[in-house]
Amino acid sequence: MSKSFLILAFSFYCMVCTGKMPAINPKAYSADIIIYGGTSAAIIAAVEAVHSGKSVLVVSPDSHLGGLSSGGLGFTDTGNKSVIGGLSREFYHRVWLHYNDNAAWKWEKHSEFGNKGQGTVAMDGENRTMWIFEPHVAEAVFEELVKENNIRVLRNEWLDREKGVEKRDGRIISVKTLSGIHVSGKMFVDATYEGDLMAAAGVSYFVGREANTVYGESYNGVQAGIKERGHFFKDPIDPYKVPGSKESGLLYGISPDPIAGNGSGDKKVQAYCFRLCLSDHPGNRIPFPKPAHYDPANYELVARVLDTGWMDWFAKYDRIPNKKTDTNNHGPFSSDFIGGNYDYPEANYARRKEIIAAHEEYQKGLFYFLSNDKRVSDEVRGKMSIWGLAADEFKENGNWPRQLYIREARRMTGVYVTTEHEVTGKTQVSDPVGMGSYGMDSHNIQRYVTSEGKVQNEGDVQVKLKYPYSISYGSILPKKGECTNLLVPVCVSASHIAFGSIRMEPVFMILGQSAVAAACLAIENKIAVQDISYEMLKKRLLERGQVLQMLKTDQN
Fold first, then answer.
1. What pLDDT band is residue 25 in, cutting at 50, 70 and 90?
2. Which of 299, 319, 470, 546 could pair with 86 in a Cys bridge, judged by C-beta atoms 3.0 to 4.6 Å apart?
3. From CA 142, how far away is CA 485, in angstroms rounded?
């Protein structure tokens, strides 16, 4: 028996006797791939890691998984569905399976729902997919994927954005959460809507919209006075509290700042809202609640819009199964809280919480006003009376959606910046990792007073695309000098207006899967994510069922 072994044995004996065993950190975790976020992209990315034979850990700030897909956006913005492949398509296939069971139809019969939708087919029997669904169904599918793949998810864990990212030689070594959890890995994926891990890792990004001159675009910067936009004031409406009296002050939500020149850039972001799940079924409907700080004066502007005879308030009560809706913003004054989100992308957690609460107050107040205030016509109040929050959705949150629609926050400035040139097909990419097809869509960004003294919205852009387009691998990659083991499939490297097309949930899932496929190749070859062979990545993505490009002759 060697002397060293005896010394080691004696030392262990002493530690046992004295109770001074080496400390084991119960809050330390490690995996090949660490995914930060609880979005649809995060869960799909984690599934890909398991399918690729890698260990994975999801660190989620959210308790409920799926982001906006399970947070109210059940009327999926798909564009050309043929470009949605891989695990993203698998998600919609599982939704289809759910609704093929008659037990799924509680408040209406399957046959009654049919195949309704405005450009979005609910059930595609030929391709065994369904694109319109209830929030709790989407969440159940994500939870099913987590369970089937034995994915470990640390919930309600928030990144320490100030000192929680440890880097060495251009690589993230570990991240720490505010609760003290310490997570190390070989590769990291930021799958949040905000891009907090990306920013904390020192990766370049942009907030707002670039001037048109930056990338030679037409639709990116300020877009004032362009009448073909959809969500603007079509009739002249007085912006002042007392009509005609500038001295009385502006109505709530109208900016006093002069509008900048068209095409110029700024740091403002397109408006957010909650996608409400409403019901008109008496057995599953609760009245719109009156918020704690309700002020009917905040909604005088929508009353003036209704006074003009505008009756399209109900145009975006898009039907989802079981007599419910996915209710989105529509028209000149609606659920978008224009201007209420400018500092959200960079704000600390406490401030973000305030902004989210303000959006909830605004939107609850709006629906309460339209349902109850005498300033609103009997006709509108009568139509509103048949609607209420769906009683069987978001039950732990007062039937209110958990996820604010963060349409845009930070956007990485990465290896390749996707612009309107790629989205419109003027420029082709050589290294596609997925495809988009939805039109370039920016919601309004500001509400201002025109030179004629009337109120107007600005920032709304809706440009339909002729063909789907490919998204470059470089758009989910940081620059190599900034980080070599991070991928960003949600806050991708794109201009404001290009992101307006990319920012759809099916695309986020596509890019989440492709990001982890690339991360796995980088691990296997012990190289930076920027150095992997695209041909190897392409081969793997095609094996996974991803759609990377389409010839124009194949496109509808």
1. low
2. 546
3. 26
Residue 544, C-beta contacts closer than 8 angstroms, at least 6 positions apart: 48, 51, 86, 87, 513, 517
Q: What confidence tens digit (pLDDT) does each residue in 250-267 have?
A: 999 999 999 999 999 999
The amino acid sitting at 88 is S
Q: Give the span between the Cα atoms of 386 and 192, in whole angstroms.
A: 36
Q: H or E stretch including 306?
A: helix 300-307
- Cα(227)–Cα(411) distance, rounded to whole angstroms? 28
What is the per-residue pLDDT for 112?
Answer: 84
- Provide CB contacts within 8 A for 442, sequence distance 6+: 209, 219, 270, 459, 460, 461, 496, 497, 500
**114 φψ region: left (φ > 0), alpha (ψ -120 to 50), beta (else):** left
Q: What is the CA radius of gyration of the chain?
A: 25
Q: Residue 137 is encoded by which pair of tokens?
A: 């169904």
Nearest to 439 by CA among 501, 389, 491, 502: 501
- For the residues of 427-447, what is the DSSP string, one character each? S--SSEEEEE-SPEEE---EE
Type of residue numbered 224:
A
- The reply to whether the predicted model has a pTM over 0.90 is yes
d(CA 196, CA 352): 12
The one-letter code for the residue type at 179 is S
Please state, in angstroms and rounded to a whole number, the distance separating the CA atoms of residues 449 and 240: 10
Residue among 410, 421, 383 at smallest CA distance from 217? 421
CA distances from 541 to 433, 536, 547 (A): 7, 9, 8
Q: How far apart are CA 487 and CA 516, in angstroms?
A: 8
